[in-house]
Amino acid sequence: MIVPVRIVRALCALGALGVALTACGGPRASSRVVTATATATGTPPHPVVASRPPTLAPGPAGLAPVFEHGPRDRGEKTVALTFDADLTEEQGARAAAGERFDNPRLIATLRRLKVPATVFMTGRWAEEYPIQARSIGRDPLFEVANHSYGHQAFSADCRGLPTLAADRVAADVERAYTAFRAAGVADPMPYFRFPGGCYDRRALRALRASGVTAVQWDVAGGDTAATDPAAVARDVLERVRPGSVVALHCVRSTAPVTERAVRMIVPALRERGFRLVKVSELVGATAATTS
């Protein structure tokens, strides 16, 4: 099939626009391309820039949108397992002294079980474990999303975390994306998870400039400081519903039993007919029902 010149020019313009958007900071448009089949005359194929991952429309008064779970009534039981890879700036000295804030065994188990997952990563974690960050970010089984740079709270009185000033929110989010790219994560997702899960209108207003969808959860895994993986698995399985977003952790130091809990959670969910998906699929399904 011969591609009309008008379409070729339009595609080139879209490609240039993607480059321009990338230069402006914030979550970068996907650099993955879909290559069209060459024509019978031997014309070189034209690369088509993949569309941006799905996000939700801004909330009232232009606030950043907040996503907690996917559709409940799609006729299909889907659930997203998410993992927070936390490391604060203050914990850097502990990491340098040998304390482990990564969890490569968990990532290996997710790969072995073929579990799609979304990893909400702090920029500081990516700086401490760049090889692991790059490996996760380049694995099509996973997607990397933003969990701030140094895990400071975006609202006051949040689980004892130091509070980030409102005028530093956009810069903090971008600093995390910069850390991801420096580690080799080519396509971080335009999703953001508030440290501690805490936010207010001020935080949503400040976050809007970053162009991200804030992703919360409806099932807290309760794996932080847990010592019994069976209890974590039981808690998740009792509360999960179609469209659920489950929040767990990818930190050996503070969530040491997560990998063993996942080995119980995943087969049980599949036995119940759940299909495990990334957050982007649930966001896309939600956006389609509200558009």
Automatic annotation (TrEMBL):
<dbReference type="InterPro" id="IPR011330">
    <property type="entry name" value="Glyco_hydro/deAcase_b/a-brl"/>
</dbReference>
<dbReference type="InterPro" id="IPR002509">
    <property type="entry name" value="NODB_dom"/>
</dbReference>
<dbReference type="InterPro" id="IPR050248">
    <property type="entry name" value="Polysacc_deacetylase_ArnD"/>
</dbReference>
<feature type="domain" description="NodB homology">
    <location>
        <begin position="77"/>
        <end position="277"/>
    </location>
</feature>
<keyword id="KW-0732">Signal</keyword>
<protein>
    <submittedName>
        <fullName>Polysaccharide deacetylase family protein</fullName>
    </submittedName>
</protein>
<dbReference type="Pfam" id="PF01522">
    <property type="entry name" value="Polysacc_deac_1"/>
</dbReference>
<feature type="signal peptide">
    <location>
        <begin position="1"/>
        <end position="25"/>
    </location>
</feature>
